[in-house]
């Protein structure tokens, strides 16, 4: 996933980045992956970030080639991270407020969300689960938001395509997204600490 997203963004970025990336594509992608992981690790281990596991007895969760995905990080309650572990277990991460919105878990809706973030492959233990999911993605199920479904049918929820075609809003330039997320989940801002 990361190489495709980097490629989408690199086309619209500075010539310096394009030269560095062209010199060693794998190295650049790996450096970006490590940096992203390090920043997210700080968020996901913050004091206000919580984890909840769920086991289901009926139905099954799908797994994909991009299994870990999350909701919008800037939503009112905050991001919810979805980590499918098996066909009957999933782990959710987020703030207590965000996790409380999961009072009723709809396996079909979770599978649709997981499938939307797949790059190329979706797996299930039973073919009937995949057939039901295909119907949902075609708009023949409970979700009738055609714009959402159109994005869901594209690799990685259409994010690489949107990243390449959407200009960064001026108000977002220079925003420390990871800093905002870390503060939201109770990670201390070390720049404000005073030592005596």
Architecture overview:
By secondary structure, this protein is an alpha+beta fold. It has helices spanning 2-10, 15-23, 25-44, 96-100, 107-116, 127-137, 146-152, 159-165, 177-184, and strands at 50-55, 63-64, 69-70, 80-84, 89-94, 122-123. Strand 4 and strand 5 form a beta hairpin. Helix 1 (2-10) packs parallel to helix 8. It is globular, with a radius of gyration of 19 Å. The termini are far apart. The mean pLDDT is 82.
What kind of sheet is the major sheet?
A: 4 strands, antiparallel
Terminal Cα separation, in Å? 46 Å
Mean pLDDT, to the nearest integer, reads 82
Strand tally: 6
What portion of residues belong to β-strands? 5-15%
Assembly context of the chains: single chain
By secondary-structure content and strand pairing, the structural class works out as alpha+beta
Molecular shape: globular
| Whole-angstrom Rg | 19 Å
Strand order of the largest sheet: 1-5-4-3
Q: In percent, how helical is the residue content?
A: 40-55%
State the domain count.
2
Low-confidence stretches: none
Number of helices: 9
SSE succession: HHHEEEEEHHEHHHH
Based on the model shown, name its key terms.
196 residues; alpha+beta; two-stranded antiparallel sheet; 44% helix
Write the layout of secondary structure elements.
Layout: H1 2-10, H2 15-23, H3 25-44, E1 50-55, E2 63-64, E3 69-70, E4 80-84, E5 89-94, H4 96-100, H5 107-116, E6 122-123, H6 127-137, H7 146-152, H8 159-165, H9 177-184
Antiparallel strand pairs: 1-5, 2-6, 3-4, 4-5
Helix pairs in contact: 1-8, 2-3
